[in-house]
Write a structure and sequence with these properties.
single chain; 149 residues
Length: 149
Amino acid sequence: MARHLSKDECKKLFQQFDNGNGILSLAEIDRAIIHWYPEFGTNRQAMLRAFKAADSNKSGFVELKEFCHLIELLYYYNELSDLFEQLDKNKDKRISFNEFKKGHELIGQSNLDHEDLKKEFNRIDTNHGGYILFDEFCIYMAKKRARHN
């Protein structure tokens, strides 16, 4: 498992992959992550989610102050991705209601009956496509985490 970086290490990593303009594109971040965290480099969903969340000014690039936050977010979204994969039994990158029902204990929903599980599933499935997508799952888990903190 990759270790967390100190502020100095984070700055050095940023500077190593910055092309001199003081910002990193997604491609530059991709190279930095594959270099420093090869086990995270293959998890594209977690990397994209961390990139979007860290890009606080929505410029499409990440500055140094955002980059260190991106690294921390990468740990969080990688954990969520692992959990999502445990629920996604058929590996189609989405969670059906049956998969949700079989694995709902993994996300702390152990005391719900069928009807309440269906309501919770529908609450998570914000695009009403009949499946929970990774982005929907991340938003749900972040809200759940915020309620408990």
